[in-house]
Amino acid sequence: MRLTKQTIALLSLPPGKTEFVAWDDALPGFGVRLREGRRASYFAQFRVNGRTQKKSLGYVGVTTLEEARNAARDLLHAARHGHNPKLAKAEARAKAALTVDALTNRYLKHAQTRLKPRSFKEVERHLRKHWEPLQALPAANLKRADVAARLQEIALTSGPTASNRARAALSAMFAWAVANGLSEQNPIIGTIRVADEVSRDHVLKDDELAAIWNACRDDDYGHIVRILLLTGQRRDEVGAMAWDELDLTLGLWIIPKARTKNGLEHEVPLSAPAVAILRGRARADRKLSFGTGSGGFSGWSASKKRLDARISKTAATVRPWRLHDLRRTMATRMADELRVLPHVVEAILNHRSGVVSGVAAIYNRASYSTEKREALERWATYIDSVLER
Questions:
Q1: Is 197 in contact with 164 (CB distance < 8 Å)?
Q2: Which of 349, 320, 321 is nearest to 334 (CA)?
Q3: Is residue 288 in some structural domain?
Q4: Phi and psi, residue 321, nearest 5°
């Protein structure tokens, strides 16, 4: 029969039957199903990959006949072309349920098996921290405008480098999602880097060093910046410096292998100015030299902005810079101005390089203590001369 409002209204279960189907002659595969104790409902029946499947289209009296017939027509057309309507809906629901947070969890499980531990931690930090405001959104609905706006926010709060790194991490995650059928598009495509980063080969001039040093206050961050310049060590190594790593009588700082980038214990001779800074900070009730928490100093971005603001109020001209430039500047000046031998500079920086390698590296490691101390004392004298100009 052709299903109409009138014919449907006249339908009833045959005697002794608990279920009955009335097919629509006008649209094969579309029908109304009657079941004992339940409301009549529209449905479509189709075959995909040799299997017969049914899809409910709503209750009679709630869904109109026209709505049900149109939905059935679309489903049957899709099935004839090899598409599974039920699977498509399930996939759509799954994609809607896959939030940015859930996608991040899945991607990080993958990335952890592919990336080195340090690189993985960086990627995880950028995805967790910088994209946290968007984590609750369905990944499939994340728009380019959402991403672009957030990149601007990250640049303002954490700087252009953080924004660019966060952009790269999210782009890699969505590229993986697209490749694995978890997303139809990468919302990063079409966005731009919000700003250029400070060049990685940036070496500070002497007047810039003086301006930075003089703008430092006698607080945690000011002391950290000066220690970074005097020792050439990494930001996080200084920021989490523990008192039990220091022997101020000998003027020696031993960074345990658990805190170095290359996993090797590192001896850093401390020049007289560095010792003086640390002696003025010594407190018996604190395990770490800087910061108040268990992880050492925090608040890097805000402190850097305040330091830059103080510098800008002086007559000095300082190009955009970052803390790592202090380490690079020390190494460059030692080599160019003080004529410190390359392997000694490398030893101070705790670099593994081709300057000394293999068995020679093992036998030579301890022999550079004197050379490192002499070089760092000469560097402290150089800084002092810069400040007196």
A1: yes
A2: 349
A3: yes
A4: -145, 165
Write a three-state SS string for 307-354: HHHHHHCCCCCCCCCCCHHHHHHHHHHHHHCCCCCHHHHHHHHCCCCC
Enclosing domain of residue 19: 5-88
Query: Which alpha helices (DSSP H) does the chain contain, by range?
Result: 5-9, 65-80, 85-97, 100-112, 117-125, 144-158, 160-179, 206-215, 220-231, 235-239, 272-279, 300-312, 324-336, 342-349, 358-364, 369-388
For residues 30 and 7, give the distance between their C-alpha atoms in angstroms, rounded to a whole number.
14
341 shares its domain with 249: yes
The C-alpha atoms of residue 247 and residue 254 are separated, in whole angstroms, by: 8
Give Dmax (Cα) for the chain: 109
Instruction: Kindly state the tokens that stand for 280.
Output: 């003025």
254 and 332 assigned to the same domain: yes
CATH of the domain at 137: 1.10.150
User: Do 345 and 227 reside in the same domain of the chain?
Assistant: yes
Could you give the CA distance from residue 289 to residue 244 in angstroms, rounded to a whole number? 10
Decide: 266 and 234 in contact? Cβ < 8 Å: no
Is there a contact between 319 and 268 (Cβ–Cβ < 8 Å)? no
How many domains, the chain?
Answer: 3
Alpha carbons 378 and 52: distance in angstroms, whole number: 84
> Residues 104, 108, 110, 111: what is their CA dihedral angle, to the nearest 10 degrees?
130
Contact 146, 190 (CB under 8 A): no
- If asked whether residues 234 and 317 sit together in one domain, one would say yes
User: Could you read off the pLDDT tens digit of each residue along the chain, which spans 389 residues?
Assistant: 899 999 999 999 999 999 999 999 999 999 999 999 888 999 999 887 778 888 888 899 888 899 899 988 988 888 887 676 555 554 555 555 688 999 999 999 999 998 888 889 999 999 999 999 999 888 888 999 999 999 999 888 887 888 999 999 999 999 999 998 888 899 999 998 876 655 567 899 999 999 999 999 999 999 999 999 999 999 999 999 999 999 999 999 999 999 998 888 999 999 999 999 999 887 767 889 998 888 899 889 899 999 999 999 988 889 999 999 999 999 999 999 999 999 999 999 998 654 444 444 444 445 589 999 999 999 999 999 999 98
CB distance 60 to 22 below 8 Å: no
Residues 346, 233 within the same domain: yes
